[in-house]
Amino acid sequence: MMLKLFNVVLLILVVMSAFGVIYAKHENRKLYVQFRESQKQRDALDVDWGRLQLEQSTWATHSRIEEVARKKLAMRNVEFGAAVIIKP
Question: What digits encode the pLDDT tens for the residues 3-29?
C-alpha cells in the first residue's frame, strides 16, 4: 500500500515537473521574441540616428550658415577699416 502511494506521489511530481518544463520553455520563447523585437527596434533607431546626424552636419556647414546669415539676417562681413578693437 505504501509503495502504491509512493508511486502515485512520484507520478504527480513527474507530471508537475513536466508542466514546469513546458511553462519555462514557453516563457523562454516569449522572451526571445521580445528580445528580437527590441533588437529590430534598436537597429531602426540606429538608422534614424545616423540619418539625423547626417542631416545635422549638412545644416551646420559653414556655407549653409553663411548663406542663412546673408539672406535671412542681412548680415555681411565686417570691413577691415570698420572694425574696432577694444584693449583691456
Answer: 999 999 999 999 999 999 999 999 999
